[in-house]
Amino acid sequence: MRLLIAGASGLVGGNCLDFFSKQSNIEVIGTHYSFPTNNTVFFDTLNLDNPDNFDVWKFRPTHILHAGALTHVDLCEQEPEQSYKQTVQSTLNILQIANSLQAKVIYISTDYVFDGQAGPYDEMAETNPLSIYAKHKWEAEELIRKESKHSLILRITNVYGDEIRDKNFVNRLFNACLQKESLKLKLPIDQFATPVNAHDLAQALWVLLREGKQGIYHIAGTDYLNRVQLAEKIFSYFPEHKIEVVACTTIELNQAAPRPLQGGLKSKKFLTEFPFFRFTSVDQYLVKKLK
Ligand SMILES: NC(=O)c1ccc[n+]([C@@H]2O[C@H](COP(=O)([O-])OP(=O)(O)OC[C@H]3O[C@@H](n4cnc5c(N)ncnc54)[C@H](OP(=O)(O)O)[C@@H]3O)[C@@H](O)[C@H]2O)c1
Fold it and tell me: Dihedral sign, CA of 12, 15, 17, 22?
């Protein structure tokens, strides 16, 4: 297998690059766009003719994982054209490469394709994206479904884990506690999700690829938490450190993009097909990190 990971300077792509690089019988290349890392190469999914692009035609991937998107949900609401380009147009371009090389596409999507009235959701649930980010992710999913036979779509939410920029919610709060930064946080008590460890996600993808699976899979960790509960879980490991959490509603937060409130995903389909797979909890991750 030759795997190309677009967006490997990010949280999900970076964990996949790290995980797949350690497996045998896989050649893997990860790409960055604006944030070069030690083990990624430049590739602009928006300009396939950029002379600085890594030569994908020479590498001839058999599989392409598209983990690149504009992931700042509120920015997408304010800059819909940029959101369209980085999420939908980039997917169209990835499809163009994949189809001409007959490579299998793996697309990373989100629980934001649902409206958050009745989560956590299984793969059969009806979608109803609320925000620009969510609509563009759904549009990209649709393109993948229509234009790419045998493709795999993984929906995920609230990803956390080791990453170069340590910008995910769990690691940001964890590091702030370690460094004894004083914090006062205003967090929504009504946004629920199923946080998933990026390493587990990479491992789950590997299992799916080995078995030649296609279609949609929901990949979720074992917790179902709102943002306040998630933050308090982290703070519970630092009892001496004083942190102020102000719980509020999403309406009070006045975020630019609407959020699905009762979100989250069920990995029942995945776990039924792979009953021996174990997703870790946030607690397990934090305990390991503290050692
Ligand atoms: N994190 C979550 O909680 C979460 C939840 C649901 C779904 N997802 C989905 O999972 C995927 C990965 O998310 P993430 O959290 O890993 O995001 P991330 O850390 O923000 O990384 C996004 C990646 O996309 C790359 N990228 C952006 N525009 C690009 C372009 N035009 N060409 C090539 N690469 C481009 C970025 O490259 P540079 O940084 O080098 O510019 C970066 O590597 C996204 O599709 C996101 O929608 C994430």
Answer: negative
> How far does the centroid of ligand 1 lie from the alpha carbon of residue 242, in Å?
33
* pLDDT score for 183: 85
Which atom in ligand 1 lies closest to the alpha carbon of residue 112?
Answer: 6
Q: Ligand 1 centre from 6 Cα, in Å? A: 9
Segments of the chain scoring below 70 in pLDDT: none
Residues forming a β-bridge with 121: 265
Asked if the 167-193+224-262+282-290 domain carries CATH number 3.40.50.720, the reply is no
CATH architecture label of 2-159+195-218: 3-Layer(aba) Sandwich (3.40)
**What tokens appear for 152 in the block?**
């795999």
Query: Rounded distance, CA 185 to CA 128, Å?
Result: 30
**pLDDT attached to residue 240:** 87
How far apart are the CA of 180 and the centre of ligand 1, in A? 29
Q: Where are the domains of the chain?
A: 2-159+195-218, 167-193+224-262+282-290
This prediction's pTM: 0.97
Tokens read off for 115: 């409206």
